[in-house]
């Protein structure tokens, strides 16, 4: 009887130790799961931030292109005015020479 009791006690001690190890693994797994979820949430936030930044860059690019077109149009208008002033200057020179 005492051998059986000692064996049972030894078995129970091993099972308690195994149970404690399994409980520790379970806690670690839960912590790892929480960390992974937090990482996924961070990744989702980073993706959303990247999408917002992309949309803002596209708007800025579009606006910049429109501004460049306006600048080019204004430069062309100024060139026309300069050419017109040169023509007026030539006409006035011709008029002065002809008088």
UniProtKB/TrEMBL annotation:
Coiled-coil regions listed in the entry:
5-39
One of the GO BP terms on file: regulation of cytokinesis
What keyword terms does UniProt attach to this protein? Coiled coil
The terms describing its cellular component in GO are: centrosome; ciliary basal body; early endosome; midbody; recycling endosome
Superkingdom of this protein's organism: Eukaryota
* Record-linked InterPro entries: ENTR1
The record's PANTHER family line, in alphabetical order, gives:
ENDOSOME-ASSOCIATED TRAFFICKING REGULATOR 1, ENDOSOME-ASSOCIATED-TRAFFICKING REGULATOR 1
For this chain, the family text in UniProt reads: Belongs to the ENTR1 family.
Q: What is this protein called?
A: Endosome-associated-trafficking regulator 1
């Amino acid at each position: 009887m005492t051998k059986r009791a000692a064996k049972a006690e030894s078995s129970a001690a091993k099972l308690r130790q195994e149970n404690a190890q399994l409980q520790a693994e379970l806690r670690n797994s839960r912590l790892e799961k929480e960390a992974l979820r937090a990482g996924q949430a961070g990744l989702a936030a980073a993706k959303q931030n990247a999408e917002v930044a992309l949309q803002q860059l596209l708007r800025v690019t579009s606006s910049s292109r429109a501004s460049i077109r306006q600048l080019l149009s204004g430069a062309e208008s100024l060139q026309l005015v300069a050419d017109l002033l040169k023509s007026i200057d030539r006409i006035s020179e011709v008029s002065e020479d002809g008088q």
